[in-house]
Structure formats: structure tokens, C-alpha cells
Amino acid sequence: MRVGIIGGGAAGLFSAIHLKLMNPNFEVTILERDSRVGKKILATGNGKCNITNLGASEKDYNDSKVLYALNNFSVFDTINYFKKLGLMIKFDSEGRCYPYSEKATTVLDVFMNMINRLKINICTNYEVVHVKAYDDFMVYSRDYGLKHFDYLIVSTGGKSGINFNNESYNFLEYLGHTVTNLYPGLVPLKTKEKLKNLSGIRSKAKVKLLREQKLIFNTTGEVLYKEEGLSGISIMEVSRHALPGDVISLDLVYDLSDEEVTNFLKNEKNIFGLLPKMVATEVTKRGNNLLYTLRNFSFVVEDTYGFMNSQVTKGGVSFKEVNPITFESLIVPKMYIIGEVLDVDGNSGGYNLQFAWSSAYSAAKNIIEKEVERYE
């Protein structure tokens, strides 16, 4: 049985390995546009590969139907699966899970060892430009001609962090699927206020996203000031909900009471013993009410830093057009759509990789079950 997997990222590699482990007789081929597979894995978790998060639930995603995938293949299934593949895992205080080495290369090495051992075919520099579905799947490439498959898994990712055009949206639309609008997610935000003097400084804050003075989202974490805006884990999380014109309000003293701050600032110069010097200077420029400014250090959102600086793509193939349990297309039988190419995105902290593993496992499991039923 021939299974083609378009895209050699996290979801594609995982589905290939599970298929071959469960049925060594499958002929599994990964078609990868880039010069090597797994390149985006190396960039995840700031190069440490945040494999999953102990707290992952459907609430961490834009679509609650992710629950089906998490039930199919949970966080603890992920941890145990990677251990069986030969990867030692460690956890941090926030529930994030990393390889013990804290190197994303270790995860990719474990994958490649399995792929070589299982004799999974990999075709790199293979750009799929068109797909037709008749009795089987015909996959076309500009440079390498035509390949035939009995099952097809599309795991081509999104537009984030790549310097080429993702052609998969085009052939998926040709096959009848709807692609929703695409936006950068988990991305630094450009602000109306320019912050050259603060560039490179980090501080922790309670971060609120306001739209017409109504609270849209809030979180607490690190903020990194950039020349044209804001970054850091907390801002990445906010970016999934932000629109131009929204206000980001930072409470720079969220863990202190008003009384504590007021007493400390009876001498205004004490603010330089409270915050990094340049942040303190900016706060004092914004008015005489230091307590108010410290609680509401605000910036107006103008734009994002774009797909190349984003960690995930918002939007994609409509999740309504895919079985949320098996990830088989509801439009094209025997075609499965998994991972970031779908209109599913999660918070920062391992959630998006967990969806990659869960959707990949679900698709591979269903293909295996279909073949078992075929011979019964």
C-alpha cells in the first residue's frame, strides 16, 4: 500500500514513522519541498523544541474540536511515545516539555534514526504543484514528474517562518477545500509608539489587550521591547487576538499593591530602582501620575512583524471540512489533512506541536484501520 506524505515537518515525520511502525509493509514516501526534512522543528521553542505542554486542552486552541485529537493522542501519549522512540524528556515549571538535551536537533536526530531504520522514502527538493484524485492520487512536481499513491497525507504547514510560497493551499482548493484567510500568529507586534531607546530590554508584566476599552485577552509574562514594537512570550500570545488599533496595556508592577508602589515612589527617583533605567525614563515621560502609568504602560497596535517572524499561521483549510477524529477529508476520500495547514492554531508553549503529533497519529491510525478492515 502506497502512502504519500506531502511535507516533511513535525506532523509529516511523525505520521510516517507511526504508519511504518504499525505496518512495515506500507510503502511510505515523504515529499519535501526544502533541501532537508524537519527544518522548522529546529526553530521551535527557541531551538529547544517545546514538544508539548502538560496543561494542553481544547481551551488553548482556536477551535474546540481539537479535543477529539487530544483524546485520540494525549499529552501523556506523546511523552510516552517519544520515550519509546528513544528520547529523554524534561519539564519546566510552566509544564513545558523539552528534550533532556534542550536541543531541537536531538528530536530531529531521533526521527531520522527511525526513518532510516524503517526505510521510509524521502524525496527532498520535491515541490508538489498539483494533485489529482481518481482511482488513486496523482501528485505532480515541476522537476520530478508524477507519483502515484493509494493514500495521501497533506502536512505542508502554513506560511510562517518560510521564504517560499506554500503551493499546497492552491491544490487543496482545486480539490474542493476552503482555505480561510491567513494571518501571522504568535508574532511580535508593531506599535504606533517607536521604542528605539528601549530596544532589547526585557521586563515582566501583566499584559492586557483592549479593544474600544473592552478587555479581549490578558496574560502575564516577559515583554521584549523592539525598535518598532513589542515581542516576548506574552506578546506572542496576545498577537493571536490582536487587531490594528487595539491597545496593549502593560502593568509593570502587577505583583505589588498600590500602597507598596505609592510608598516606594514618595521619592520619584526611586523609580530607577524599580525598573530598568530606560523603561523608567519612558514611564516618567508619560505624565506625573507614576502609579497610573506603571499600571497602564500602553501601546497602540499597528501591524505584526509578518509571517517570517511568526511561529504559527492563523487560518488555513477549514476544520469543518475534515473529520476531527480521523483527519480524513470530508471532500476527498483517503486524503488526510494534518497540522498547521489546517485552520487550527494554539497558544505558545508546546500546544501547536501537540496538535501536530495528535493529528498525525489520528490520520495514521485511521489509514491502518482501513487497511485492516479491507482484508477482514
Provide a compact summary of the structure.
The protein is of the alpha+beta class and 376 residues long. The protein is built from ten helices and 19 strands.
Structural overview:
By secondary structure, this protein is α+β, with helices and mostly antiparallel strands. The chain has two domains: about 1-175 and about 310-375, FAD/NAD(P)-binding domain (3-Layer(bba) Sandwich), CATH 3.50.50.60; about 190-305, no CATH class. About 30% of the residues lie in helices and about 25% in strands. It has ten helices and 19 strands. It has helices spanning about 10-20, 65-70, 75-85, 105-120, 170-175, 235-240, 260-265, 275-285, 290-295, 350-375; strands at about 1-5, 25-30, 50-55, 90, 95-100, 120-125, 130-135, 135-140, 145-150, 150-155, 185, 190, 200-210, 215-225, 230, 245-250, 295-305, 310-315, 335. The strands form five sheets. It has a six-stranded antiparallel barrel. Helix 1 (about 10-20) packs parallel to helix 4 (about 105-120) and helix 1 (about 10-20) runs parallel beside helix 10 (about 350-375). The chain is elongated, with a radius of gyration of 23 Å. The two termini are about 15 Å apart. The mean pLDDT is about 95.
Question: Which characteristics define this entry?
Answer:
single chain, 376 residues, alpha+beta, FAD/NAD(P)-binding domain, six-stranded antiparallel beta barrel, elongated
Question: What's the helix and strand layout?
Answer:
Elements: E1 2-6, H1 10-22, E2 27-31, E3 52-53, H2 66-72, H3 75-85, E4 89-91, E5 96-99, H4 104-118, E6 121-123, E7 128-133, E8 137-141, E9 145-149, E10 151-154, H5 168-174, E11 183-185, E12 189-191, E13 202-211, E14 214-226, E15 229-231, H6 233-239, E16 247-251, H7 258-264, H8 277-285, H9 290-295, E17 297-304, E18 312-314, E19 335-337, H10 351-375
Parallel strand pairs: 1-2, 1-10, 2-6, 10-19
Antiparallel strand pairs: 3-5, 4-5, 7-8, 8-9, 11-18, 12-15, 12-17, 13-14, 13-16, 14-15, 16-17
Helix pairs in contact: 1-4, 1-10, 2-10
